[in-house]
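Milestone M4 deliverable, item 7.
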Amino acid sequence: MVQKISVAALACLLAIAASGTNGQTYPTRALRIIDPYPAGGQGDILARIIAPKVSESVGQPVVVENRPGLAGNIGAEVAASSPPDGYTLFMGTTVALGPSRSLYSKLPYDAIRDFAPVTRVGAGAYVLVVHPSLPVQSVKELVALAKARPGQLNYASAGGAGSGSHLSSELFRLRAGIDLTHVPYKGGPPAVVAVVSGETALGIMTVLAALGQINTGRMRALGVTSQERMSLLPNVPTIAEAGFPGFEVTPVAGLFVPARTPKDIIARLNTEVRKALDMSDVRERFAAQGVVAGGSTPEELGAILAAEVEKWAKVIKAAGIRLD
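Output delivered:
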């Protein structure tokens, strides 16, 4: 006797079978990691450290593809609109994806809706630096000087309006209750030059971009934005311990895939990337970039991003920033 099966039950069985097939056969061809900034940037470097490790593990090439432009939005759009099949990953940071919802009203993608988190990759920090001629030795002294000279101190942002450097500086300005003048630059190197030359009095930028000039005394580091001191700058206090408890900006790099990517594929990617992040040589190379390597579950990365969306929405509104 032939037993009948309903259309709904058959569809369910087919879906289960397809899901299992994805996990068993994936990947069968090359994967790509889209980095939304030019080659040589920190996200690009991190992706290129991870890629060969994952490639060796899964037995397929993993290619890093740079798609720069519009403050990272071109690369993000390309990644978000790619097929949700696990072959396109996106190297995103919480200080770029988190504020995007509030900075732009007409973006062709949504950081929460159009991406599925895979794993946290690592966390870095920014450093607050001043020109050596500025008569301040601490964050508190800088704030006192800025209050005595409202609007007269210029700060450089690496990456221009809406960048992590800019938003971190605005958060510091709001928290300290001071008036600073923003001077945008296209990237880390020109922002560093601006502070070293005295074109601007101060700036908040990545530790890696500023480290060489700090070590030679051409810039003075007053504080780092992370929750804890950094191994590359062990004698520089956090801004929180320098007089502003609770102040923290920790750029978290993470890997994402297009929304609706099958969960078993996300789980496979999570396993492979975290395996790479646990390797001692990967951790050492990340540390040289001022980044602490460390994976997470997809849910943990999703929670981090959601918190960043909420945090930066408040900062952007209070600072009156809009980039449309």
